[in-house]
Amino acid sequence: MALSRADTSTLGRWWWSVDRWTLAALFTLVGFGYVMVLAAAPAVAERIGASSRNMFFAKQVMFLAGASAVMAGVSLLSPKGVRRLAILGFAGALLLTIATLFIGAEVKGARRWLNLPLLGSLQPSEFLKPCFAVFAAWLISEAKLAGRRGTAMWGAALVSYLGVALVLQRQPDIGMLLVVSSVFFAQIFVAGINLALVGGLGLMGVSGIVGAYFLFDHVHKRVNQFLFGEGGNSYQVDVALEAFGAGGMMGVGPGEGRMKNVLPDAHADFVYAVVGEEFGLMICLLILGLFAFVVVRGMMRLLAETDLFVILAASGLLTQFGLQAFINMASSLHLIPTKGMTLPFVSYGGSSVIAIALGMGFLLALTRKRMSRAEEGTLT
Q1: pTM of the model
Q2: Mutual orientation of helices 308-332 and 124-146 as an angle, nearest 10°?
Q3: How many CB atoms lie within 10 A of CB 335?
């Protein structure tokens, strides 16, 4: 059913105000998620002795369907509604992330997951990322608008960041901490604070990375393995590179890949390697282009925006989305040290895909064409 520009219903106003190009790019990535979990997951399920070869695929179908609903539903909100939901989400996700330190399931030396009745395994820090981006944007924008009276809001923003950073460091989840820190620093830079302070924060970030290298054994091993080829286990990276090489320009064909049979995280952190083998360089570049399009398109939409909160929140969400995609693809290609981080919407994962959908729903809501105040007030 076609929607007329004269349609004043909630759906009609949404359709003519949302960025349909970004929406199309995101749902195309969701489509790739269905294709890739069907290609990679059965081999993984068979290798680990799962009850069904389609176990991961069946779960991911539900995850992606839920993610699509979340993204579409959240995109209906006004900026005020986005802010309210993000503040509540930040408080809840932070409490649950703190809870992982005490009652979380330990996997490979890290406590990042909660085993909840009915819901199964949940990684609350995934939801912390998009909610913190919006929450921090609200605090920073309020501080900037208050001028010299905004010291308390600046303090609240810094304390919030340091609290999140401390919890993530204790899990430990250094990759997640890197993403959250990048979002926060990017928002401060966009807000236009003193360059000396930006430099100081940058120095603090570099010091944190160096400290992680010396304090965390798994970080030390991964960096040494990447730089010097010593220590650590490079098996997955080596297999991933073989997969890219085998795929060539056009790939070996859907379902014909062989490396997924021996690649432990073929359906999750290394799904991009499966794409490379079965679909080739051209589809890899297409996926890369879709991520770049979402980020660039979002930034272009912000050029005409005057609301500082919207600018900062959307900038943080775009930074997070683009950086997560870059880390996943660059790790698979051995361009950076390996880091277990999913490829948004394409990799298997429940918490990750729903949290990414929440963040992109926030983005779509914030970058909609602004209507009259009366109309905006109906979706708070």
Answers
A1: 0.90
A2: 140
A3: 11
